[in-house]
Amino acid sequence: MASFSYKRIACSVAAVLTCASPPPPLTRAPPSPATDECKAIPPVRASVMGDAMYRLGKAVQAGTEPSPDARAASAQLFRQLIIDFPTFAPGYRGLGIVEGTRGQWLAAYVAYKHYIQLDLSAAEKENVRAELAKLAQQDPVLGLYANGEQAAFNNEWTRVIIVMGEVVAERPSFSLAYRLLGIAYAAQGKAKHSVDAYRTYLSLDKLAPDQKEVAQIITDINYALERKTRRVREGSDATRR
């Protein structure tokens, strides 16, 4: 199934703000359990693969210890690995597994979601979606989030905003909910709300592999807003003359 593109949403918002011809209806649904969440991000460069694999081995080894402290240390090793190698897919996979064993369902869910954004095989993506479905059964908030994703798949943007509002009311630090809010607001042409949601997503999720892409969307929308403000101001000045 085709992947969803943030850029498509950003262009729609920009077109509305600049009074260009209205964009055609969206032909791509935003993220859902059955779709890729954004354009596949290429894997880590081969030149640094050796270091990444060594660090991965250390994190995995720590996670095999049964004590809570050892698993917490393993999770921290995976997080640092991701910070240093943000497109190294096994880092997200490992973090998802370890957080799951620790009962940190939301953290595991986010890690798996980021993992599925990377350049994976179709079979592996199906495996990860199965893990996500299991996690959604562990925490009602994750099940609610999954329902919101399905609403987004159906272009039910008002429903998405309502459901994500319920999600963040229960879990204010759940970054993916703000990401989906950013998409939903953008789809409705609510540029300022979209920017606020995207900014919250970036502030909460320092491990997100799509940080640069989302930051660029914020820049593009702000630029369109500035152009609109300038045009309104120039129109007011012309009227006064």
Tell me what portion of residues adopts beta-strand conformation.
Answer: under 5%
Largest sheet, if any?
none
Computed CA radius of gyration, to the nearest angstrom: 20 Å
How many domains? The number is 2
- Low-pLDDT residue spans: 1-41
CATH superfamily of the largest domain: Tetratricopeptide repeat domain
The chain-level structural class is mainly alpha
Notes on the structure:
The longest helix has 30 residues, at 211-240. This protein folds into two domains: 1-40 and 121-234, Alpha Horseshoe (Serine Threonine Protein Phosphatase 5, Tetratricopeptide repeat), CATH 1.25.40.10; 43-119, Serine Threonine Protein Phosphatase 5, Tetratricopeptide repeat (Alpha Horseshoe). It contains eleven helices and no strands. With 241 residues, the protein is mainly alpha-helical.
Outline of this structure?
Helix content is 71%, strand content 0%. With 241 residues, the protein is mostly helical.
Features:
241 residues, mainly alpha, Serine Threonine Protein Phosphatase 5, Tetratricopeptide repeat, 2 domains, globular, disordered N terminus
Present the secondary structure layout.
Elements: H1 6-17, H2 49-63, H3 68-84, H4 89-101, H5 105-117, H6 122-138, H7 140-153, H8 157-170, H9 175-187, H10 191-204, H11 211-240
